[in-house]
Every structure is written in C-alpha cells, then in structure tokens.
Design a protein that fits this description.
This protein has 9 helices and 2 strands.
Length: 204
C-alpha cells in the first residue's frame, strides 16, 4: 500500500509551495530580461562596435542587476549597465568640447545619411560623449535622467551632448555622399537635424 499520508503531509506541501515560488521568480526574472535585453544589447554594441563584447556586457549587466535585487526595474538595470561600461571605458574622462562657427554650422545643414555611416561615426566619438548621445538621442532619455544615471551635472550632459552632435556632423560631412542618401524613403537612411549652437533645455 502507498503511504498517502506522507504525500499530503506538511513537508510535501512546503516542497510544492517552494518549487512554485521558485518557478514564479524564474518567470519574473525571464520577463525582466526579455523586457530590457534589446535596449541593453544595443547600447553595449554601439559602445563597443563588437557583438561578442556586447553579449559579454549584456550577460554581466543582468548578473549584476539580479544580484543586487531579485526584481530590478529599468533604472536599476541601466545602473548595472553603466557600472559594466565604466570598467571598459573612461566615461568620465574629459575632452575639449568640439566647437562650430556659424559659417560651419550652415555647411552642416539637415542631411540624409546612411545608417551604416552614422553607426561608424558614432564609434569615433569619445566614450563619454558616445554614451551621452546614445542615451539622449538614440534611446530618448531626458537630460535629467541621463544626468542622474551617470551621476554628473545636467549642464555637463548638455555640453557633452552638444559636442557629440557637432563631432558627428563634422565626421559625416567629411564622408562622400552616396546615391542612396538622396532617397529619404530608404530604410537605410536617417535624417540628422542641424545641431543647435546652445545646449538644449528639456521641456517642462
């Protein structure tokens, strides 16, 4: 005869409940990973220009995020990513900001560029300016959010972002124009607006 009493005892119930809770935790963490992995990988890839390194950063980011808290929110995942990037790049290293005159600005007018050219130009930015451009102009974070994430003054974010935009424009302006760049309907074409001469202010 089977010992049915043993199967329905407190220990068995405790095991079942524990397994269920563990599975629920795994499911929650999987959902968190799926919600943020594309953004984290994209940022890591544009920072490194290398898929293998980007995958390594992606993995390390989530290992750190889940180690710090079982159910990290987006901001906590971003903080884990910044911690990983700081180990690889001098994000706080200052560089003389790029300057542009009014005459030069006119030559940097609105321009259609190939996406691949833009991706290559992003790689030429200093790491600190690169991460500012990616967070603000690619991912759409506010200047305030970027400042909080990087733990720097918002004025520094705005100055660095302005410098990054100008460097990109100058780098892209030096590249030969292609026939595809004249077709704004192409999925490989992106349009860059004229960079402002003054740091922008976030909308209230």
């Amino acid at each position: 005869m089977f010992n049915l009493e043993g199967l329905t005892g407190d220990n068995s119930i405790r095991v079942v409940v524990t397994r269920r809770l563990m599975q629920e935790s795994v499911d929650v963490q999987r959902d968190i990973y799926e919600s943020h992995r594309h953004r984290i990988f994209a940022l890591a890839f544009y920072m490194t220009g290398n898929e293998i390194e980007a995958e390594e950063i992606l993995t390390a980011t989530f290992v750190k995020a889940f180690r710090d808290t079982p159910e990290p929110e987006a901001g906590e995942v971003d903080l884990a990513l910044m911690a990983e990037l700081r180990q690889r790049f001098p994000l706080d290293q200052g560089m003389p900001p790029s300057q542009v005159s009014s005459g030069e600005r006119a030559s940097l007018g609105e321009r259609n560029v190939r996406r691949t050219d833009l991706e290559e130009a992003i790689q030429t930015l200093p790491p600190g300016e690169r991460v500012l451009f990616l967070l603000r102009d690619v991912e759409g974070y506010s200047s305030t959010a970027v400042a909080e994430l990087l733990q720097i003054p918002e004025t520094k974010v705005q100055r660095g972002l302005l410098s990054a935009r100008i460097r990109l424009r100058q780098s892209l302006a030096a590249r030969p124009s292609t026939e595809s760049a004249h077709n704004p309907q192409s999925s490989n074409i992106v349009q860059l607006p004229v960079p402002p001469l003054e740091p922008e202010q976030d909308a209230a």
